[in-house]
Each structure stands twice: as C-alpha cells, then as structure tokens.
Amino acid sequence: MSIWEQYPLEQQEEYIKFLQVYGALTNLFRQKKGDLIPYLDSKYQETIFAKTFNGQNVDIGNTPHDILSVLGGKRIGIGLKTWMGSKPSFQKVMQLKRYQEEINEHRNNEEDLAYKISSIRNERMISDYERLGLSENDNIYHYITRDKGIFTINECAYPLIDINNLKEFNSTKTAFTWTDGYKDYKYTYGDSQIWQKFDSAKYNTLLLRTFNVKIIDDPFSFLLEAYINIFEKSKEVEEDTIEAYLPLYSYRSKQVEAKSGLNAWNAAPKNKNSDSPRPLNEVYIPIPIEFHNKSPEFFNENIIDVIALRKALKGNKDINKPEVRFHLQLPNGKKIPALLTGDNLKNFQSGSNNEYDENGKRYGQSALGQWLLLDVLGLKERKLVTKDWLEKKGTDSVRLWRNKNDYSVINIDFAPIGAFEAFMNDEPIPE
C-alpha cells in the first residue's frame, strides 16, 4: 500500500484543492506567453503537505527529507519535489558542494568516484534517519509533475544507494552517471549536485492521481478581493507558536571553544582527584546573555528576574536557587528532561535528578549530546568539534519552539548556517 493511500480520502481531496488553488494563480508568475502549464512553488507544496496531512516540516538547509509523517506509529520521511513535464527526467536531489574536493580526488577512477559520491549521499541520509527517528526502508519521494492544464501526483521509494551494486558508469566533461540497479543517478561537477532519474518504470514508482487545473486570467483582482475580505473584514489571528535560535558555538569568539559547549566533554574531570575523562557526549549549548535580553520570555515569564534572584542567593546554602527546567522534544520522537544552568543561566543542557530512560539509566548531561553529536552529526570519537566541522555538516545553530502559553515542553532541531546571527539581528532566517 502506498503512503498516499494511508491518508484519509478527505485529506487527499483537501490537498488536491490547495494545489488547484495555487495552480489557478499561475498568471501571477508568467512573464511570457506559451503553453499554460500550471505553476507550483516547492515551498508552498511543503507547507500544504504538512498542513493537510498533519505532518512536520523538517527541512533544514536542504536536508534529505522535507516532511515527517507518522502513520500508525511508523515514522515516514518524505522528500517533496515538483517539475514541468511527466516524461522520465533527472532532478536535483542533493547538494554536495562541501565535499567537492573529496569527490574530485576520484575523478580518474569511475568505480571509486561512484562509490565516493554514493557513500557521502548515504551518510547524509543515515544522519537524517537518526535525527528524525526514521527506519531505512519506509521513506518516499512524493512528487508532482506538471503538464498543460494538469497536475499528476506520483510516489516512489526513497532508498539508500546500494553501494555493492554500482555499475554502468559513464563520464563526460560536465557530469558522471551510474546506477545501482534500482535508481539511476548523475553527478554534475559544476554545481556539485546529485541528480536522480524519476521514471515510472523504475523501482517502486506509483502514479497516484491526475487532475485538471484551471488558470485564472486575472489573478491580481482575485487576490485583491480576497485580501479585502480577510484583513479588512476580520481580525488577524495571532500565532500560537513562539520560536528562537541558539548558537552551537561561542557568540563572542565565533568558535566552538575547546573545553566548553559542544566540547564540554573535553573539560577537566569533575573530581579533582580523578584522571577519568568526562563522558563523550557530555555537552551543553551556550546561551549568550544577549539572547536572554532579547527574548526574556522564551524559557519562562521573565528569565532576567530569575537570573537576578539567583545572583542574590549565591553563596546562601540554606535557600534553594530557582531553576528553569522543562522537557525537550527531539525530532526523533523522544522527549528528555532539560534545564538551564550556570551563571546567567548560560548553559542549555539535558539532565534530571529523578527521571530515567528506557534502559533504567538516569537522564544526564549526555542525553542531549547523544542525539546532537553522536546520532545526527556522527561524532563517534573524542575529536574536538570546530565551527568548520559543523558548517561542513550544514549547521551551526539550533531552532527552538514552543506553544505560546506552555513553558513545559520545548521542541528542538538543527537550523541552517547563520540562523542564530540572523535571529539576533532580526533578519530573515536562512533556508
């Protein structure tokens, strides 16, 4: 059974209606006359898919999956795409610019080149499995092809590349193609992109629905009338979610410090008489005081008051200092206890005095580091994290968000490079 068939029919029809509405506005975007092929913006497609099917938009700086959908307890990673023309064609699926030098070292050996590109692609896929709590074989591409007056919805398997069955290598000056027997792939040297051939005759590909799209001749008048009806005749609805961003590096030095933050595991042993190193994943995310000043109501009603009270009580052992504790919702479905610690509540970390994981182990400072460093970013040894290393992984910040009136649960996920700086400067967050 396809993933599409597992959604209720009412949701399928609503999704199609949203697509038809957007396609109807095609003349907003047309600069030249020609065949009336309806237009569809990929970001709109992501938003509507998540809204209609109760999914979560999990795309962060071109990560492999756009939407997380939970069906019958199973977590499904979905890549969304759209393009003109329903004939088989290659489409861009992954940017590998950060790996360009590594890949170019293998250009003289086609088999090694296919293996290198495929391995990097698989590593990034597996990293996203860990981030989102996905299994390997349940994920799909959901894509829409557009022809004159119609949209066609398709679905196909989204597997790892079978690196043990790479074959049919072909090189030109600009590109390299190969297959693993299931899917055909292409790598273009100029932009360091992996392309995948989408073909209805290939492995696990299904044509789901074809439907007409009527294009409005004058969409400008239509939008103006809609705007007047919505904003001049009704009150604006407030957002029910609040979001913020934190850096994975020091805001002052712009680097990941060697013995703090993501490298807290490298600090001196907690016991002065011990030579035992700290646990590998013992980390915290640094919170600059500038963040608290900008967003004093993100973690509680007014964190500046809490910081002041903690300072006033410093050294008084008879009175417990106020704490800021909450639960951290990871994108893989797990929820862990967390808190803010340190002077000026500058450390964002996991930890609990009385809560235990499924193995009976008390949650500690390593729980967040396990997901962040080991599971997702793949740091499996005592190697110092650097800002360059983070950026090669495609991130240097995390996004936090919570319901407007609920401080008890904070959601977390990675954010694109530059997200924290943009947040602090009130600039658009990079995509």
List keywords for this structure.
431 residues; alpha+beta; seven-stranded mixed beta sheet; 11 helices; 18 strands
Question: Could you explain how this protein is built, in words?
Answer:
- The chain is α+β, with helices and mostly antiparallel strands and 431 residues long.
- The protein has eleven helices and 18 strands.
- The protein has helices at residues 3-6, 9-24, 42-52, 100-104, 110-132, 219-231, 289-294, 303-312, 366-376, 387-392, 419-424, and strands spanning 56-57, 67-71, 74-84, 89-95, 140-147, 150-157, 167-171, 175-179, 184-188, 193-198, 205-212, 241-247, 285-286, 324-329, 335-341, 347-350, 397-403, 409-415.
- The strands form three sheets. Strands 12-17-18-14-15-16-13 form a seven-stranded mixed beta sheet. A six-stranded mixed beta sheet has the order 1-2-3-5-6-11.
- Strand 17 and strand 18 form a beta hairpin.
- Helix 2 (9-24) packs antiparallel against helix 3 (42-52).
- The chain is globular.
Produce the secondary structure layout.
Blueprint: H1 3-6, H2 9-24, H3 42-52, E1 56-57, E2 67-71, E3 74-84, E4 89-95, H4 100-104, H5 110-132, E5 140-147, E6 150-157, E7 167-171, E8 175-179, E9 184-188, E10 193-198, E11 205-212, H6 219-231, E12 241-247, E13 285-286, H7 289-294, H8 303-312, E14 324-329, E15 335-341, E16 347-350, H9 366-376, H10 387-392, E17 397-403, E18 409-415, H11 419-424
Parallel strand pairs: 3-5, 14-18
Antiparallel strand pairs: 1-2, 2-3, 4-10, 5-6, 6-11, 7-8, 8-9, 9-10, 12-17, 13-16, 14-15, 15-16, 17-18
